[in-house]
Write a structure and sequence with these properties.
The protein has 229 residues and is α/β, with parallel strands linked by helices. The protein is built from nine helices and nine strands. The strands form two sheets. Strands 3-2-1-7-8-9 form a six-stranded parallel sheet, with helices on both faces. A three-stranded antiparallel sheet has the order 5-4-6, covered by helices on one side. β7 (167-171), α8 (183-189) and β8 form a beta-alpha-beta unit. α5 (68-79) runs parallel beside α9 (216-228). The protein binds adenosine-5-diphosphoribose. InterPro entries: DHS-like_NAD/FAD-binding_dom (IPR029035), NAD-dep_sirtuin_deacylases (IPR050134), Sirtuin (IPR003000), Sirtuin_cat_small_dom_sf (IPR026591), Sirtuin_class_III (IPR027546), Ssirtuin_cat_dom (IPR026590). GO terms for molecular function: histone deacetylase activity, NAD-dependent; NAD+ binding; protein-malonyllysine demalonylase activity; protein-succinyllysine desuccinylase activity; zinc ion binding. It is an enzyme of class 2 (transferase). Substrate binds at residues 54, 57.
Length: 229
């Protein structure tokens, strides 16, 4: 039976598609305060500011193009004889644009959520305060993004994949935000081999057996070729 591969991706895999990361030099968290734009309290305090932050990222992501790293992962999912599960912290939709499927543990910029009734719908390019919910009509639409202090999505499914995988890879994540930063420990505990692909060392580099250092658009296609060819 071919190995099951689980891959965690972070903002670094989309950096070469022109989308900013969070914690690199000049990253999103250097320009915006997390508590203002990425918490339920910030949204309650100033919904216009929060919608403005996600509207800008939604428009940018809509025109972003997958880079060779996204394309390589789609190739791996298509051609690997075993199961390949991508778990992404990213909300930019680039895995799907490259032809892959992914579990979105932090939600998606393309999604809107009603915080009154829980209904989900495709977000318009620009959302605004009092966005009406198509289901319950309440003015309670918000970006379908998991904010700090909220539970990431699909955690039970993700944990099952981690405990059943033979190879765990993390690509382009700084390893600073849990639970994602702890996935490598779970996978290793269950006996998986582990590899980190990143431009630089991360907070969790020491937890991986193997490493590929370089830009994702180079190291990810090379790693996929090692596996497939
Ligand atoms: N190729 C590979 N890795 C890269 C590249 C690149 N071209 N550019 C940057 N990186 C790496 C950085 O070295 C860093 O380790 O990508 C990582 C980016 O880290 P963060 O900006 O912290 O992004 P991420 O790890 O995805 O953040 C996790 O934090 O703010 C929350 O919800 C947000 O999903 C996000 C989570």
């Amino acid at each position: 039976m071919a190995d099951k591969i689980v891959i965690l991706t972070g903002a670094g895999i989309s950096a070469e598609s022109g989308l900013g990361t969070f914690r690199d030099e000049g990253g999103l968290w250097a320009k915006h305060r997390i508590e203002d734009v990425a918490t339920p309290e910030g949204f309650a305090r100033d919904p216009a500011l929060v919608h403005g932050f996600y509207n800008a990222r939604r428009v940018q992501a809509a025109s972003a193009v997958p880079n060779p790293a996204h394309t390589a992962l789609a190739r791996l999912q298509r051609d690997w004889p075993g199961e390949v599960v991508i778990v992404t912290q990213n909300v930019d939709g680039l895995h799907e644009k490259a032809g892959a499927t992914a579990i979105h543990m932090h939600g998606e910029l393309s999604g809107a959520l009603c915080f009154a009734c829980g209904h989900r719908w495709t977000a318009p390019p620009q959302m605004s305060p009092g966005e009406p919910c198509p289901a319950c009509a309440a003015p309670t639409g918000r970006p379908d993004i998991v904010w700090f202090g909220e539970m990431p999505y699909h955690m039970d499914e993700i944990e099952d994949h981690l405990l059943g995988c033979d190879l765990f890879a993390a690509i382009g994540t700084s390893g600073q935000v849990y639970p994602a930063a702890g996935f490598v420990q779970g996978a290793a505990y269950a006996g998986a081999r582990t590899i980190e692909l990143n431009l630089a060392e991360s907070e969790i580099t020491g937890a991986f057996e193997d490493h590929r250092i370089g830009p994702a658009s180079e190291v990810v296609p090379a790693w996929v070729a090692e596996l497939l060819d």
